[in-house]
Amino acid sequence: MCVDSDWIDDRVPLCRSSDEYWKDAEQLRAAHLTEAGVIGPHDFLAARRAMEAELEAVKRLPFLLRSRINTLSLVGQLSEEVLIQIFLILHCIAPPGHHQYLRLGRRSIQRRIGWIKITHVCRRWRNAALAYPRLWNTNICSLGPKWMVKMLHRSGTTPVFVRLTEFMVLPDEITDTSFALSQHLKHVQELEVSVRNGKWNVIAPSLLGEALLLEKCVLSGFACIWDDVGLTLGLFGQHTPHLRQLDMNEMPVFWSSLRSSCLTFLKVTDQPNRRARVDNSSFTDFLDAIERMPALETLILWHSMPALPHTSTLHSDDYSRTIINLPRLQELELTDDILACALLLQCTTVPGTATQIIYCFYDDFVQRPINLIFPWVKSRVNTSLPIRKLSVSDQYYPENSIHILAFDEYDKEDDSHFEQLQDSPIFGLTISHTPSMLMERLPLPELKAWSLIQAMRTASVLPLEDLEVLLITGGHWLQRVHWLDTFGDLDRVSVVHASGHCAEHFCYAFCKSDPSDYSSQEFRDTKTGILFPSLDTLIIKDVLLGFDDDIGRFAKTLTMYLEQRSRLPVRPLRRLKIGGDCGCEVSQTYRRVKKIMPTVEWSSCEGSTEEGKEFASEDESEDESEEENDAQEEEGDEPDDDDNDEDNDEDDGNDDEEGKGYDG
């Protein structure tokens, strides 16, 4: 075979065939090792060893030839910079990983090297990958301690990103893994360690050295107080000059030892009934620690503030003199005892634009009254625009709690005001019973959302004069009298979301105009005496509206309520939107509502929009007598107000079954 090409050096003779060339090379190389030259057994063995060495050399020859072939391919012409970019892409889409499985009752791990396979393609690719340290500074713990040592060595002095969980390594590999980590701790820039089942004492010693490059640290695990908490106290030699983010989950916190003035993100979380708090951390130490972090932008504390003495109050001299300035704070989230939250909020000065979400727990009404949190609510409202959108919800399971969100703006064209909250609230407040009380099944004092809203309005901490959108969700807590007494003076509300039994009682309340129904003298003196006179849109969800359902009697009274509302001297209700689980056989209810309302939108009914006339026009020729009979039945279907039973008894001393009406 003769190769004629302009780009091949003329000095390379390629006119002979490959078979002839390598056959001549073999004869020339092994001529002195032929059998005829062998005299004795000793020479025979030496010749055999020499031939085996030649054979090993020949075995390596194909790799050299393959490398030369690869240089003649299109991929082989790529520059090293382009190769590195390709490797970086593979590094992201095919990282090293592991898969756990049980083998003979023991946990085993199957590992895959992912992108590292490219280093086995050719010598040029391997050299290019090994020469770029940033390919080896992440996912270093996924393949076990041996690979970890190799990758740390290949990363050189570049910053290292370490993520280590106990599920990445077998029990007998933890010690070697910890040792490898300790040797390169000074190069670690981001560290995430999550260990459980008492393995913290094995991992912690590897974190006692200085971490001069550490910027982000996430530590998680059940580090109990009976473990060696001294290991936690000595983490990183208490010297992390570049630490920006610290996240500690279920770890004992020594607040007096936290001195990272550069922190921008701090999150400390714990379980409410398993607090890993140590005796030498006082609330004063905690406040001093937060004061040493003026650069904080995010502060999240869940059940992690030190316990307060029972004698502590909101005006205790030990805490009221502390002033904490956090001028850069953008997000604040607290979940703890109501007094602890109130004290921290009282001592802290933050920008008015910061998002603040507070979850308060209380158990002692004498030392921990709900109004402890009122000063914070008032400060948030005073530094913002008027409240235009309000969400109030309560939960009875798994805990008795109240949730309040207040906003200063809303999108008039968007009905999903509360399904996807994109706007930052003026404040978010949750008040609940102490979890320990729930766990121990102690008698819980009654906690009602309407009473909390009334208390906040009476104390002038929740002004709602400009409220336009209101969402109420929950159980039976808000009956007709509660609607009137809590929101009876709000004349600008145009949109109401209500769900469940709240929707039933609201419809009963908004169709009445008798001022005597108000138990509060203040609301009896309103201009109209009608609930929400500017109401334009009503959205109800999760109400049984099946006309033939025994438990869905609200369907028979809804049309009556809407008709009564239309006769009141207020703005006509223009739009009704129904969603959620409304039961079965709702077509008849829809047809009747459609005759009253200009616009009805019902997600479960085909053609329920304003343009969909075909569904509403079905059965237009219903028997008139049937509607009259239904109307007569509806006269006695108004829900009783539990708070006005005495008045009802005085008005009607004859309580027969048909006169009792609907009990919501």
TrEMBL record:
Protein name (Swiss-Prot/TrEMBL): Uncharacterized protein
Highest taxon, organism lineage: Eukaryota
Lineage, highest ranks first: Eukaryota, Fungi, Dikarya, Basidiomycota, Agaricomycotina
Residue segments, region Disordered: 603-664
Organism: Dentipellis fragilis
UniProt biased composition (Acidic residues): 617-658
